[in-house]
Amino acid sequence: MRRNRAEQREFNRRALLASARHLIATQGTNVSVDAIAEAAGLTTGAVYSIFGSKRDLILAVIEEGVHEYLEDIERLRESEEALPGLLDLYARRVAAGLDGDFREEARFEVLLVLLCLDDEFFREQSLRLQHRQRDALAGLFTGRAVSDGPSPRRVSSSEAALIASSLLALTSGFLLRGVLDDQVRRDTMARACAALAHLVDDGTAAH
């Protein structure tokens, strides 16, 4: 079925995002606009028409990844798991999303960090987006039962913020470590994430 103008523009936008992410991960952030457009089967004019600049295209790639991440967080809200089970579930979903392109995803993350070191604009924007991820995770954990049982204590907002920050750091570390060590297992990451539940007192011990 033939696409209308709006549908074609969205199709082109997504094609450019996909090609940009792949080429940045495999060739670096200095990849040319021409190469990105060619990989998407489009002209360079489409890049500037849709995104305005290469910088805005790269930012859109980053924002697209965060948007997908936030959608996954929203789906996790449906779970009735207590904190340890929810952390395990989160880690396994993160791991499942890496199947097939583990090294490419890790390379993209490394290049993004390097880009942030050299470019204040991307550092500020990446920090803003990271805060959105942290806040979404904190919202997911706030009020969650600390353990299974008839009257469990609930996670406070400050505890949820601590767990969220720790979780983001932990999963990023596993991602980067997996580039160097093929023996790093996804179930190990899930177990390590679930262990973050111990950052919260379950109420059985004195504070």
UniProtKB/TrEMBL annotation:
Residue span(s) of domain HTH tetR-type: 10-69
DNA-binding feature ranges: 32-51
Tagged with keyword DNA-binding: yes
Family matches, as Gene3D superfamilies: Tetracycline Repressor, domain 2
Top-level taxon of origin: Bacteria
Protein keywords: DNA-binding
Keyword Plastid: no
PANTHER family with a match to the protein in the record: HTH-TYPE TRANSCRIPTIONAL REGULATOR PKSA (PTHR30055:SF226), HTH-TYPE TRANSCRIPTIONAL REGULATOR RUTR (PTHR30055)
Protein name: TetR/AcrR family transcriptional regulator
Species in which this protein is naturally found: Streptomyces amakusaensis
